């Protein structure tokens, strides 16, 4: 019997027969990348392969790299294995990576969500024997509302703030979440963006993703020029002089972690919108079931309880130690769950 198709090393998930790693966290010769978030697409590899859709942002973030794009569903022979990329529904361009040898199929999910957000290429279940799944929100308490419900909450919040003469500052990660929120907001006025958000937005818009018009915040843009505006900024911009230019403002964070009251309170967000680009508990279970896999390895998140749960459901289950965790993939502490 030949070696396991994918193995777990201190550099990342490795395919010996193909001579490549998937989302490695230390420099390697050949890297297959699921998506552009910084914990998955890291600097220093000899050669990158990702979807055509993910490539522009990855190039923008990493600068001079040797990289190649591949279409969704296109198959490529690499060494002794066949490789293909399939939509993960996480952010624009994100993929699950399928690796096959003979009749044996493994799929690495990367980060994923099953709800169609109207912007990212929607998640497609890929049949496999072994599925390596993220489980950032792998506890039953994480259950997302449909996107339309959160959209209505956002609209009401913005309207109420504007009526009281306050700006609305929405904190969100710059790749994926920020653009998803833009598409959910009513066309009630211009959306202002922090430079870090605008960069990614511009790249995605140039690629043909349908995004509403945005205005980058520059000198001269403030509460006077744009009263009652909605501003999308990275979480790090809150509480800084940059944010104070808008005068009295209401700040909110849009993240799956906002489901935990403790986190919301400690980070000083009066308002939190519970919306995530990761699968919730039902989403994880649906996705795993749909693969038909008999063996599941879980990565970042609540790996221990989630593995136990999978074993109780009759799966052969294991935990893979990775160094992913950056967009939303931090694990909350016990106190947050109380
Ligand atoms: Zn991600
Ligand atoms: Zn991740």
Automatic annotation (TrEMBL):
<keyword id="KW-0269">Exonuclease</keyword>
<dbReference type="InterPro" id="IPR050698">
    <property type="entry name" value="MBL"/>
</dbReference>
<keyword id="KW-0436">Ligase</keyword>
<keyword id="KW-0378">Hydrolase</keyword>
<dbReference type="GO" id="GO:0004527">
    <property type="term" value="F:exonuclease activity"/>
</dbReference>
<dbReference type="GO" id="GO:0016874">
    <property type="term" value="F:ligase activity"/>
</dbReference>
<dbReference type="GO" id="GO:0004521">
    <property type="term" value="F:RNA endonuclease activity"/>
</dbReference>
<keyword id="KW-0540">Nuclease</keyword>
<dbReference type="InterPro" id="IPR026360">
    <property type="entry name" value="Xnuc_lig_assoc"/>
</dbReference>
<protein>
    <submittedName>
        <fullName>Ligase-associated DNA damage response exonuclease</fullName>
        <ecNumber>3.1.-.-</ecNumber>
    </submittedName>
</protein>
<dbReference type="InterPro" id="IPR036866">
    <property type="entry name" value="RibonucZ/Hydroxyglut_hydro"/>
</dbReference>
